[in-house]
Design brief:
Chain B: Its main location: membrane. The complex is a heterodimer of chains A (249) and B (254). Chain A is mainly alpha-helical and 249 residues long. Chain A is 81% helix and 0% strand. Classes of the chains: A mainly alpha (249), B alpha/beta (254). The complex binds adenosine-5'-triphosphate and magnesium ion.
């Protein structure tokens, strides 16, 4: 029998470390978005050498399992720094986590942003250029508002992956939900594994659901731009058709 | 008012414009005609700096730019004195009709929203589309979109408007409404550079017609001089082929 009472009992102690997961999530998704914009810009502008380095970086983050990336960051990064003469005495697992997830998220997002940017027609750029927009004005007023609706679903996916990947950060010793779960399991001598994992699953479900809802709200806000892609008019046309059909026309 | 000197444009090794010299006076309507691939589009785009010329200079009222040494500020100044009307309209897809006309006024001319809105309504009225002001471009016909793009250009009160085959992407029955609007713009005293394959329209509207071939200006003159009295074999050949093709089309349509 599932011990629901036990599940309710352990929930507070799991919730008490939820902020660790959330902070790491928010930090790495925000930093990841920033970095991905930079990476995408470098690749689109085809900046010499740097652009190739970015391609390599993306290929790496996409190919290597995230657990390995976490280990590499935690053990490798201080070592890398010491090679250039910087010695960090206490490189925390949380910092390593944020760094690794940021890179991973940025690599993934760059593959979302680049095609979204390229999907904006050349004519949109030329119209703005021709009228005398500065590159910054063109980007903020004309290009970005058209890129965002295209990129939003992909960004939502990236966010969900990030949420999933936070379930691995206990492997380098971050005391998050999974970390607490392991402690609980060993202190209950493995008697309540199912309950513990199920509680965590429900927690992750809740986090992902909230994230999805947020993305959905953004998408709805951006939906007015879909109108310009002809999606809304078609819907309307369909409704018209249905009305006509109902009227027996 | 607008002077081009020795304008040269090359795509890689392929030189498309081989030294174009031209002078346009205020209020003139100058039409460029010539075979396909001759460089007419490239010429207009160069004046807007959408193509980067390899040599030459442009003078537009008080802005003088040597293309070889043009800096960003020069380019912006040039672009803000000119406005381009594209074959494919290129309206901003995420903005309504009136927002399309307003945006550059707000961004570039630093007008208030209210000012820009009023000016935009005025221009939309002129092109007969005030009632469509809150629609998105995708809901308009090609002819209507092109008229909006003309309003967008006019609203910035440029020194010169560049039209690159403004009716070529349109269904035949929509060509008339756009030509009518261009005619009104010409009447209002706007300086216009126009590339078109609508010869009859060119004949009626132009103060000057320029015949181009293979990256050169072959000849220029009044519509009468070019269309009726040209002694240049290439001009006559081009016009003859044009009228023959038009006749074939007319016969095919009967
Ligand atoms: N971006 C480009 N890259 C390479 N070649 C180009 C480019 N744009 C134009 N060309 C070439 O330059 C030449 C002139 O082109 P342009 O479009 O100016 O001709 P056009 O006179 O406008 O022709 P049309 O009447 O067909 O519009 C053509 O040979 C074309 O292939
Ligand atoms: Mg052309």
């Amino acid at each position: 029998m599932l011990d629901i009472k036990y599940m309710l009992e352990i929930t507070p102690s799991l919730l008490s470390v939820l902020h660790v997961t959330l902070i790491i999530l928010i930090a790495s998704s925000a930093l990841g978005l920033g970095l991905s914009i930079l990476v995408t810009a470098i690749r689109i502008k085809k900046v010499k050498y740097l652009s190739q380095v970015m391609d390599l970086f993306i290929s790496f983050t996409r190919s290597v399992p995230i657990v390995l990336q976490l280990f590499l960051m935690y053990y490798g990064f201080p070592f890398l720094l010491s090679m250039i003469g910087i010695h960090v005495s206490d490189f925390s697992a949380a910092a390593a986590t944020v760094l690794a997830l940021t890179l991973y998220n940025a690599g993934y997002l760059s593959e979302v942003l680049r095609p979204a940017y390229l999907a904006v027609e050349k004519g949109q750029h030329e119209a703005a250029d021709g009228l005398g927009y500065t590159p910054f004005q063109k980007f903020t007023r004309i290009i970005a508002p058209q890129v965002i609706p295209i990129a939003l679903p992909g960004w939502g996916n990236a966010l969900v992956y990030l949420i999933h990947d936070t379930s691995l950060i206990f492997t380098i010793g971050v005391a998050d939900i999974m970390g607490v779960a392991n402690t609980l399991i060993s202190s209950s001598y493995g008697a309540h594994q199912i309950e513990i994992y199920l509680t965590i699953a429900l927690l992750f479900w809740a986090i992902t659901f909230s994230a999805d809802t947020m993305v959905r709200i953004f998408e709805k806000r951006a939906a007015k731009y879909n109108l310009s892609n002809g999606i809304a008019p078609k819907k309307k046309a369909k409704r018209k058709m249905r009305i006509l059909v109902q009227k027996g026309v | 008012m607008l002077t081009l000197k020795n304008l040269r444009v090359a795509f890689g090794d392929h030189e498309v414009l081989k030294g174009i010299d031209i002078t346009v006076k205020k209020g003139e309507v100058v039409t460029f005609i010539g075979p396909s691939g001759t460089g007419k589009t490239t010429l207009l785009r160069s004046i807007n700096y959408l193509e980067k010329p390899s040599d030459g200079e442009v003078m537009l009222s008080d802005v003088g730019i040597k293309f070889k040494s043009a800096n960003k500020k020069d380019i912006l100044r040039l672009r803000r004195k000119t406005a381009m009307v594209f074959q494919q309209f290129n309206l901003f897809k995420h903005k309504t009709v009136v927002e399309n006309v307003m945006d550059a006024q707000i961004a570039i001319q630093k007008k208030s929203k209210k000012e820009a809105y009023e000016k935009s309504c005025e221009e939309l009225e002129k092109v007969g589309l005030l009632d469509k002001k809150d629609m998105y471009p995708s809901r308009l016909s090609g002819g209507q979109q092109q008229r909006v793009s003309i309003a967008r250009a006019l609203a910035l009160e440029p020194e010169v408007i560049l039209f690159d085959e403004p009716t070529s992407a349109l269904d035949p029955e929509l060509v008339g409404e756009v030509l009518k609007v261009i005619e009104n713009v010409a009447r209002s005293g706007m300086t216009i550079l126009l590339v078109t394959h609508e010869m009859r329209f060119a004949k009626n509207i132009s103060s000057k017609v320029v015949f181009m071939d293979q990256g050169h200006i072959v000849e220029q003159g009044t519509p009468e001089e070019i269309f009726e009295k040209s002694t240049h074999i290439r001009t006559r050949q081009f016009l003859k082929e044009y009228y023959e093709a038009e006749e074939d089309l007319a016969i095919a349509n009967v």
